[in-house]
């Protein structure tokens, strides 16, 4: 079987590539990083190391293509693929949609078997979103497209920090992982990938993941940066930060428990397990990686604003800890991060609250704005 995977970065190589290999796929990684692509083609193999153990997995049968300069080859790879996956970042999905559309169109012309495209990005409805971008490039055969191309939404969870290994293809990852895929939009057979858990309704799973793992992670990153810490572990070793992150996860958790009828004790165990993962002594994860793209993270449907608005709506109390994380996100600075620079400039020009209202599409008198204002005043 053949997989075409867009994005040979941390999660692409360190998670999706590993599971595809273990499921007998040959994987063609499509990326824009020439050096990485050359190395994949030279060696056809790389290693995944499980942090905290001696276990190493050699991932074989891999190669690389450039999504910008080798479009014809990418199109042909898509024609012969059995599955397509992505892990490029939500903002890159529009950029890869045209070449995917060309490949799919050619598949349809040749009457190939149905195929599924799974976006493994940290967002709600990622595959569906990608489908929207791809549809913008599908000029004919729309009906065949709808019948033969599935875009099942997914939730992926494994912490893969930026890498700093002697071997530049090696990826060190945490042993834990979860890959959940919704069955409702699958076309043809469910892709036989070891490690995927198929569910009929992804909503509770993606919300639990995004509003616990990623809400807590963002909390550690933004509060960590505010207090001068460099890594997530250092931030979480600060007793005041770990308590605020835990309390924020109990705020988002109160909503999740209520909405999805999760067992309270199991959800509290889930929170503690995540805090333990953030404290992993065998991984070094920079707050700048976890805090990257803060404008995206302050979006209305993302890990900070959605759970805070829902806490106000469902629980009716002051979202004390979630709003402190949002305040810290508004004060976040990283000159090497385009979104962080734009955010900082906007905060300087029109103030933190106006910036938040714009990014998160909130009203002046919103309780969330008032809560964040209180926290900002306390933090000054
Ligand atoms: N790292 C994690 O812990 C983790 C865990 C779960 C989900 N994710 C999600 O996975 C996605 C990727 O994250 P990551 O941490 O692997 O980032 P990354 O930066 O390590 O990898 C992204 C890769 O995409 C490539 N890319 C950029 N533009 C491209 C284009 N036009 N065509 C093809 N490739 C392109 C980059 O060169 C890079 O290799 C994000 O949506 C992230 O939220 C990450
Ligand atoms: O990838 P982002 O930028 O959406 O979020 C940063 C981290 O929180 C994220 O990559 C986690 O490591 C991952 O979601 C764990 O499963």
TrEMBL record:
GO biological process, any: mannitol catabolic process
Domain Mannitol dehydrogenase N-terminal: 1-193
Gene Ontology cellular-component annotations: cytosol
Record field: catalytic activity: D-mannitol 1-phosphate + NAD(+) = beta-D-fructose 6-phosphate + NADH + H(+)
HAMAP family assigned to the protein according to its UniProt record, in alphabetical order: Mannitol_dehydrog
Similarity field: Belongs to the mannitol dehydrogenase family.
Protein known as: Mannitol-1-phosphate 5-dehydrogenase
Gene: mtlD
């Amino acid at each position: 079987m053949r997989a075409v995977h867009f994005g040979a970065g941390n999660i692409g190589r360190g998670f999706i590539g590993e599971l595809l290999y273990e499921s007998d796929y040959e994987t063609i990684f499509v990326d824009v990083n020439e050096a990485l692509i050359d190395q994949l083609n030279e060696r056809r193999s790389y290693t995944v190391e499980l942090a905290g153990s001696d276990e190493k997995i050699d991932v074989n049968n891999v190669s690389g293509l450039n999504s910008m300069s080798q479009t014809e080859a990418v199109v042909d790879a898509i024609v012969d693929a059995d599955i397509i996956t992505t892990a490029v970042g939500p903002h890159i999905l529009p950029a890869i949609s045209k070449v995917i559309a060309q490949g799919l169109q050619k598949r349809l012309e040749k009457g190939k078997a149905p195929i599924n495209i799974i976006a493994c990005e940290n967002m709600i409805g990622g595959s569906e979103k990608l489908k929207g971008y791809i549809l913008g490039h599908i000029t004919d055969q729309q009906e065949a497209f709808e019948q033969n191309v599935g875009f099942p939404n997914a939730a992926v969870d494994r912490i893969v920090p930026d890498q700093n290994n002697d071997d530049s293809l090696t990826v060190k990852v945490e042993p834990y992982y979860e890959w959940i895929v919704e069955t409702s939009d699958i076309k043809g057979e469910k892709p036989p990938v070891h490690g995927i858990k198929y569910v009929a309704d992804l909503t509770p799973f993606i919300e639990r993941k995004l509003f616990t793992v990623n809400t807590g992670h963002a909390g550690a990153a933004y509060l960590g940066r505010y207090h001068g810490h460099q890594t997530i572990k250092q931030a979480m070793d600060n007793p005041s930060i770990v308590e605020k992150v835990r309390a924020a996860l109990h705020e988002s958790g109160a909503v999740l428990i209520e909405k999805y009828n999760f067992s309270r004790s199991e959800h509290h165990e889930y929170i503690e397990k995540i805090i333990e993962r953030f404290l992993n002594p065998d991984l070094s994860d920079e707050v700048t990686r976890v805090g990257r793209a803060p404008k995206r993270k302050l979006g209305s449907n993302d890990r900070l604003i959605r759970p805070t608005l829902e806490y106000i709506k469902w629980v009716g109390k002051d979202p004390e800890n979630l709003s402190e994380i949002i305040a810290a996100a508004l004060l976040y600075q990283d000159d090497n991060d385009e979104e962080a620079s734009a955010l900082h400039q906007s905060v300087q020009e029109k103030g933190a609250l106006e910036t938040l209202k714009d990014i998160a599409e909130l009203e002046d008198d919103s309780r969330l704005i008032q809560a964040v204002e209180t926290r900002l005043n306390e933090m000054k």
